[in-house]
Structures are given as structure tokens and as C-alpha cells.
Amino acid sequence: MRQPQQDRSRATRQRLLESAIEALAELGWQGSTVAVVAERAGVSRGAAQHHFPTREDLFAAAVEYVGEARRTWTREHSADLPTGPERTRAVVDMIVRIYTGPLFRAALHLWVAATSDEQLRTSIVELEARIGREQHKLALELLGVDESTPGVRETVQATLDMARGLGLANLLTDDSKRRAGIIDRWAEVLDATLNAGART
Amino acid sequence: MRQPQQDRSRATRQRLLESAIEALAELGWQGSTVAVVAERAGVSRGAAQHHFPTREDLFAAAVEYVGEARRTWTREHSADLPTGPERTRAVVDMIVRIYTGPLFRAALHLWVAATSDEQLRTSIVELEARIGREQHKLALELLGVDESTPGVRETVQATLDMARGLGLANLLTDDSKRRAGIIDRWAEVLDATLNAGART
User: Residues B175, A141: contact at Cβ < 8 Å?
Assistant: First the structure.
């Protein structure tokens, strides 16, 4: 049985969350008021407030939405990764893409805003810890390596931190050319230090 | 010949710049008005405006000041690094410290603010490019490696990006324990892949 009104309500909610993330990535935290987000979503301010009574409610939901979107994106792209010797580079490239896209940009604005907003901070710290664990687990799986081997855990963590740093380096300028060389080299380093060659 | 008034003026200017950085690290860009910075520095608003007519002037000077402070800190700490097998770890630790201290925190607020402020962006992009080149050159020197060896340039760049990522990971929570394990492992990876063992 279809429930057209409920469908419409869900579609409105999703449009608001997508607009919230876009507003964050483009305008930053201060510029992303409920009114601005509602206008971008083509939704009346009243309807927006029906879904999200306060700005904190809107962005707490947007934080969850970013997390879910990152998860979906990662799952979809994981299936397309090549096997064989090119795999490591493709995995590193995919991990780095997570941190250089618009979702990371939005997340970065949230993190910085959260340094001076206790409520936002609590929800983000909890979410980031969960996402961090997921990304770590996924990286281990995609690279086909085992955490019980000494050094593997820290090398994979370092890879995620490097990806985060590359995301930051891409914030104000287009860093894609420099980044490509680093990804190439990092894949070589991983193959040499994780004994990942045995996988291919 | 002493010039007490000029000395006082210089001291006031420096106090304003230090307060600007502290305000940024603690309150973020929006909270760091000229009035707030002047109050923290114990300077009248009029005196602050004599030195820095606009907020943009104040923070452009603060950006320069952050750059100079990072340079001084790095120079001072470079001299204290051990030689021998512990050197690589000490160098990585020093590089990571640059990106996890209050100066990086202040810089991060400026970067994010600069995504929606054209004037700030221009001065920061130029400054960051200069600092990036300096840090890269310094890292090569401290590690005792030569960029003409294939892969060395990208590995050193990856090290700086990882340090930046660790700085970001430290923004909302104390990440020092996890970080120590990554620094240990990264030093091993550098020793294995840069052929840095020949140095010791």
C-alpha cells in the first residue's frame, strides 16, 4: 500500500539534509541557517521547522546523513575495485576520495564549528569514532591484510590519517596533481611494507 | 639609542597578534572580532585599530605571525634532535607536533574561514604554499635524504600530509595515544623505504 503523504514527507526531509550538507560545504557553519537551508531545498521555513525544530536538530540529522552517505558510497565503490597488482593503488585512491569530496568538506566545517559548540561536538565525536572504526575495518578488508600482523594496524591507520591530511590540503586549492603522485607512491610503500604482494 | 615608545608599540602589536591566534584557536573565526582580541590583549579598541584598521588587516598579520612562529619553533627544535637510530622517530614526532599544537588549530580555523572569504583565502593560500615548501625542505634535511632518489619526494610529502591528518584527528578529542603508535610505525616505514639506515 502506497502512502503518498509519508513519501512526500520523507523526500522533503532528505532534500533538507542534502541542502544542509551543500550549504555547509559552500557557506560554512555560520552561513548555514535553517532559513538558508530551507530556501536551497525549495521548502518553506515552516515545513523545515516541522522536520527540524532547531538548527541543532537539523545538523545532528545531517551528521548522521553524511555518515550514511559515506558508507553507501564506500560500499558501492568497493565492488568496482580491480584485483591483481593494480588493486592497492585503487584502494588507496578510493580511501583518499572519501576525504577529498564534498562530504569531507561539509564534515570539516562541522568539526571546526564543533570546537566551540558542545552539543554539536558530542554528536560528532561519537559519529566520527564509529565512522573511523568502519573505515579502518573496510581498509583492512580491501587491502586483504590481517591486523594480527605487527605494524599492519598502524600502517592502515596512518593511511587513513594521510587521506585526511590530503583532504585538508585540497580545501583552498586544487591539489589533485600533487595528490596523484603521493597515492602512487603510497601504494608502493603499502605493497612493500604490508607484504600485500602475496595477495595478488 | 633606545626608543621606548617604538618598543611599546612593537610589544602592543605582538600582544595583539598572539591574542588573535589564541582567540582563533579557542573561539574560531566568528568569535574572534577585533574587540575580543583587543580585550584579551589588554589593549584599548582604539589602540588595536591604530595597529590594524580592519579585522582583515589583523588576521593577515596574524597569518604571517603564525608562519614565523612555526618557523622559529621548528628551527629551535631541529637542533635538539638525536642522531643515530632514534633520529627518524624523533624527526617524525617533531613534524607531527607542528600540526597538533595550538598554531595548527588556529591555522585550521583560518583555512575554514578562508573557504568563504576571498581576501583571507588569497593571503592564506600564498602563505601555506611557502610554508609547505619550507617544511618539505626541512623534512628532507632532517631525514638526511635526497629528493633525486625516486619516491623520496612523494614519501616525504605523504609524511607531511599524514601529520596534517593527525592534527585534524586531534581537533575534537585527545588523540595522543593512538598517534604515538602511528609515529612509531611511520618511522619504521620511512627507515625501510627511504634507505635512511645508511645515515646512522
Answer: no
For residue A82, the SS3 value is coil
The alpha carbon torsion through B167, B169, B172, B177 (nearest 10 deg) reads -90
Q: Which amino acid is at A81?
A: L
pLDDT, one tens digit per residue, over A25-70 is 788 887 889 999 999 999 999 999 999 998 888 988 887 887 888 7
For testing the chain A interface, which of B154, B178, B186 should be mutated: the one with the most A CBs within 10 Å? B154
Any idea where the domains of chain A sit in the sequence?
A: 55-199
| AA letter at B18 | E
Number of CB atoms found within 10 A of residue B10's CB: 12
Contact call for B165 and A169, based on CB within 8 A? no
Q: Please tell me which of the candidates B108, B169, B189 has its beta carbon nearest to residue A155.
A: B189
User: Three cell numbers at A130?
Assistant: 564509529
Where chain B has pLDDT below 70, the residues are 1-3, 195-200
Chain A residues whose CB is inside 8 A of the B31 CB are 116
Residue of B168, B172, B184 lying closest to A125 (CB–CB): B172
At residue A154, what is the residue type? Answer: E
**Residues in B touching A193 (Cβ below 8 Å):** 189, 192-193
Q: Do B184 and A154 touch (CB under 8 A)?
A: yes
User: B149: left (phi > 0), else alpha (psi -120 to 50), else beta?
Assistant: beta
- How close A4 gets to chain B, by Cα (Å)? 39
> In the numeric block, which cell numbers belong to residue B97?
607536533
Whole-complex ipTM:
0.86
Contact B87, B81 (CB under 8 A): yes
Distance of residue B42 Cα from the nearest chain A Cα, in angstroms:
23
Q: Reduce the DSSP state of residue B51 to 3 states and report it.
A: helix
Across chain B, how many H-helices and E-strands are there?
A: 9, 0
- B-chain CB neighbours of A147 within 8 Å are none
Selected from 1.10.1200, 1.10.357, 1.10.10, 2.50.20, the CATH number assigned to the domain covering B55-199 reads: 1.10.357
Q: Is the dihedral of CA B140, B145, B148, B150 positive or negative?
A: negative
- Residue A51 near residue A6 (C-beta atoms within 8 A): no
Q: Which tens digits make up the pLDDT trace of B113-168?
A: 888 788 888 888 888 888 889 899 999 999 999 999 999 999 999 999 999 999 99
